[in-house]
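anyone else get weird line breaks when pasting these?? whatever heres mine. first is seq + tokens for prot A
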Amino acid sequence: MPLIGYARVSTVGQDLALQLDALQGAGATRIFDDHGVSGSKTERPGLTEALRFLREGDTLIVWKLDRLGRSMTHLLQTVADLEKRGVGFRSLTENIDTTTPTGRLVFHIFGALGEFERDLIRERTNAGLVAAAARGRKGGRPPVVTPERIARARQLIASGLTVREAAARVKIGKTALYEALKEKTNVAGSTG
């Protein structure tokens, strides 16, 4: 079962030596890496290349879980994708190996905890929105296109400014102002 390694450091000045030594010591026959790439970045050419290289029966190994995933959700998704392809996953520091029954169990527990955490966040957010609504507050950003700004923009346009110039003066996007003016005209036209 070929072991394929992946290593990553976040800043250019950091050194991969510790990770590379650990991956080679674990038996990695080929190692892909990313230098100066934050874990939060979606563009990781070394990881993309490693994932393309992997074949059924291979095992992807990393020094530590946080080297692979941008977040718990991303990590779980990546390992689930590997599992569907018949590729194992090992993390040396956390001693997780999905090629063993115990390793799969531990990783699925991680997945369940990640999902539980997302559900809790969703519940707290919804409860907060309901509580705010009960106090008469509405969530979200305050509207940019207010009746006062539309009235001021109309005055500016009437005085000779273009819609673009008026939008800039009242700090509204020109498209939003066009829509608001059109909407107002349609409402006025339909009532009279």
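and prot B, same format (seq, then tokens)
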Amino acid sequence: WKKLIMVHHWPPTVCKEAENDCSNPPDYWTIHGLWADKAEDCNRSWHFNLEEIKDLLPEMKMYWPDVIHRSPNCSHFWKHEWEKHGTCVAQLATLSSEKKYFSKILDLYKQLDLNSVLQKLGIKPSLNYYQIADIKDALASIYGVMPKVQCLPPEKNEDVQTIGQIELCFTKDLVLENCTHPGFPASLKQKARWADEADSAGLEVCADGPAFYPPPPRETR
């Protein structure tokens, strides 16, 4: 593998994609994971141990929740991400243990500060549509690299795709680089699925054109 992909997802779209009502999902972008571009399930014998990240749990629950299942400690989701992706990138010194992996991802999340960046750019959840090219260009103007934006394709009764995921890519030295350029692996370029939702339709790279950035559902009282 050649690069790392820092994946953020938008909770209201996660819920829609999983066909799950997800009571009161977060109204901010949360972490999906940090992935190598061409590797998964690298070391099946290296099992997840919640005790190793015990001191990270307050931040993990805030920034890396299991949006779909909302289990008390989200450990099922984190276990999936570690065993599928963490054990692959652990060959890098900066990510060479479970503790380092999760700590570094939290650091990257705060460093990228995607939520604040989108707010400053005036890109907010709205009933009006955004042009995908405008979002990519706006993010590139801040980060200096081209991100990848993934959408849920429109369903039969819809006329527009729904923004679900934003990815920013890094070199193995954790320097930002373009996500989209010739040679990007087709498997990740075309599809991405939420963890353990094998029967889902999945996300696709957003098509050029309009997209819906859905506001969070109003909390029912």
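btw re prot B: The chain has one domain: 4-212. The longest strand covers residues 161-170.
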